[in-house]
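User: Hey, my collaborator sent me this sequence without any context and asked if I could get a structure. I don't really work with proteins. Can you help?
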Amino acid sequence: MIVWDRVAELREEIGPEDFGEIVDLFVTEVSAAIEELHRTPPHPKAVEEQMHFLKGAALNLGFADLVAICREGEERAAAGDPFAVTAAQVRDSFERSRDEFLETLPRRFAA
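Assistant: No problem. I've predicted the 3D structure and written it out in structure-token form, which is a compact way to encode the shape of the chain:
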């Protein structure tokens, strides 16, 4: 699920002309961070930090489902369970959200 009010707010803050660049950067950085999560040793602190980064990025662009899964992963890793949420689960959530976002975005902000 996408929080479109957050997307509209960010687009307004940045400006429509630069928003596409921000979206591209977000997709690139989050994809790279998820790949890094795949390679992260199963040390609770390392997983917690990666989940925290991903959660923050997802919050910025309104990816609510990704925020939720990363929050759970961050909290569980902080409690000593770095395996509670897998990188594959995070990737799947991101890909579903990304696809919904990219499909719906042009209609949401059509001129």
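In plain terms: The chain has a mean pLDDT of 95. You can pass these tokens on to your collaborator as they are.
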